[in-house]
Structure formats: structure tokens, C-alpha cells
TrEMBL record:
GO terms for cellular component: cytoplasm. This is Aminoglycoside phosphotransferase domain-containing protein. One of its GO terms (molecular function) is protein kinase activity. InterPro entries: Aminoglycoside_PTrfase, Kinase-like_dom_sf, Ser/Thr_kinase_AS. GO terms for biological process: phosphatidylethanolamine biosynthetic process. Transmembrane segments: none annotated. PROSITE patterns: PROTEIN_KINASE_ST.
Amino acid sequence: MGEIVETCEGLEEKVGLRRGSLRKEVERVMSCLESNMETENIVLCHGDLKPSNVMVEEGEKIVKLIDFELSGVGWRGFDLYKMFRTGGEGREENMEAFCASYLNCDDSSDSPCSTELTSLLVEEARLFEPVTWLEAGVFFLYAIGEGREGLTEEEEGEWEKEMEGLAKDRIGEYLKCVEGWEGRVEDWRNRVNEMKARGS
């Protein structure tokens, strides 16, 4: 995200930010994550895990993921939260069930994980809400200057207006949920450390 932000400098005003403030927000988020997340939180990620990139075969119980161009090593909480960010009704229950399955938990007494571990993973995923909005805002700002090949002047204007609107919306969502975020991340880290100290 940091490298792309450099290409967005000068575009922040389009989404109501002061010049250079987007870079500061990205640095703030990355610093907090790097201080509080451990290597166990970094996994091979889809990068754009969302319902529209999950296909279910009719009549089969086969789930397939598509759209892997953003895949790579990343924060698992980012991938998990992005899947449920706009989940609507039943989102919380689905996220909890998904996280339990991710951890290979089930209702049996010999399950390798606990309710506490599932709860910590759900909380970890929720902590990435501002990150998912910031990433999307940066993406749409970046897109203002991209994807114009073959467009007429009128279409370019429409493209820029659409990308500006999407970027402004996503940055607005980020600003709504980032208040007190670092404290929530540190509280989560302390809970993880307490659980590790107990040997859970």
C-alpha cells in the first residue's frame, strides 16, 4: 500500500484530505500493525477475499475462489475481515463460524482450539476494518490515473468522477472507524499475550 500512496500524492484533496495526510495514515496503520502483530498473523492471503470472489458449484458442496491477482503474503485478519465487511444480516455468526472452521474448531471436546481462540481470531479480523477501508480508498485514488487507455475524453471524466466518489466513500468509512484503533489493537495483543502466558 505504501508504494501506491506515492502515486496518489496530490490527489488527497479530491477525497477531503490534506496533501501528504494519506501517506501519514498508511504509515500510522503499518506502524501499529508491525508493533502488535506477530509472524503467526502473516499468512498466504487471497488479497481480495469477498463474497463476489467465492463461487459455489450448483448441486455440489464445492467452493472455489477466483480473482487471485492481489494474492500474496499478508495479514490474515485483513483477508478474513474483508470477506465479512459488507456481509449484512448474519454477518457476525458467519464470521464466527468461518473463523472456527479456519482454526479447525468444532463442537467436539477434543477440538484443537477453544472458544477463546476463536474469539481472538474474530477480534483480530475486526481490527482490520479500518485497514480494509484505507486500502480500498488508496486503490480507488490510484485508479484515477489508471485504466484510461482507449477512453474518450468524456469517458475519462466519468471514470475519474466514479473513482473519486468510491475513494471518498472508502476514506470516509476509514475515518469513521479508526478513532481509538491503536488502543483496540494493543488491548487485543495483551489478551493474546495473556493467553500464551497461561499456555492456552
